[in-house]
Amino acid sequence: MNPDPRALKELLEESQDLQADALRPTNEALNELVELNHESSNDDPTTNESFHEEHQATLLTSLRNAPLLGAAGGLALVGALATSAAATSSKDVQILQTAASIENLAVATYKAALTLPYIGGASANGVVTAFAKTTMGQHAEHAAAFNAAVRRLKGKPQTKPDPAFVPVVNKAVASLKGMSDANATLAVVGLALELENIAAETYVKNTSLVNATSNRALFASIMGVEAQHVSVLLAVQALLSAGAPQLIALSPTTVNSLPAVAGKVGFPNPFYKTNSAAPASQGAVK
């Protein structure tokens, strides 16, 4: 069954509208974040060191609540990230750099996924491919917005992906070899789902780490885009797990054939948890 091109276009337009709505308050919030940071002059090495160490200590919690990512071994990753060269940067710069690193990781992951024939090739589901391409572009825009603020705060832009999760993502991608296309597609969707959820939960948590209302809007607005990604991936995952990939078609004719779980799986929690949120200084430039 082929996707309905009109329905697909409408879905992508809605996603891009949400993205545009998110970036408008984002730019305003970033401007205020820069102004407040200059006013507070929060570049005391002792304060920054304390902030870095406090949030580094939460890395294990983040890993334990992400099954695929935690599989690499939390203790090993904490040890690798124990150095605190990022402590020379202010709290706000570290938060922004970490956010950029999460977005960079998402871009790299979707880019790698699109090279796979069952995600971006001729044999791939058209809806999945379009979603991956659109989502990758949105993550790139988020990273650019975060790094724009980093530059204005005289910090170093974060152009690399989150260092805690890179080796784990690489391991997950390598494990796809030898899988059937169906199982590999499900595994890729599962990995993307974890990364999107980490991003959403991280930005929820970041709303409590900044002071100004508009700065809270920065993370809350982008979190909404990530939450949309999570919902779409949950629905796709449910259909793949049910052995019904043909129903990922965005066609009104498939409604009566959808399993019951497809109607509710996209919204599992009334409120977002933050158990898998990345530590605020995790992706700071070292």
Describe this entry's structure for a reader.
Helix content is 64%, strand content 0%. It has helices at 5-40, 45-56, 59-64, 67-70, 74-80, 91-113, 117-120, 126-152, 166-174, 181-206, 213-241. The longest helix is centred in the first third of the chain and has 36 residues, at 5-40. It is mainly α. The chain is globular and about 55 Å long. It has one domain (5-263). It contains eleven helices and no strands.
Write the layout of secondary structure elements.
Layout: H1 5-40, H2 45-56, H3 59-64, H4 67-70, H5 74-80, H6 91-113, H7 117-120, H8 126-152, H9 166-174, H10 181-206, H11 213-241
Biggest sheet layout: none
Number of structural domains = 1
Strand content: under 5%
Number of strands: 0
Radius of gyration: 19 Å
N to C succession of SSEs: HHHHHHHHHHH
Mean pLDDT, to the nearest integer, reads: 76
Q: What oligomeric state do these chains adopt?
A: single chain
Intertermini distance: 49 Å
Q: What is the helix tally?
A: 11
User: What percent of the residues sit in helical stretches (DSSP H or I)?
Assistant: 55-70%
Main features:
286 residues; mainly alpha; disordered N terminus
Summarize the structure.
By secondary structure, the protein is an all-alpha fold.
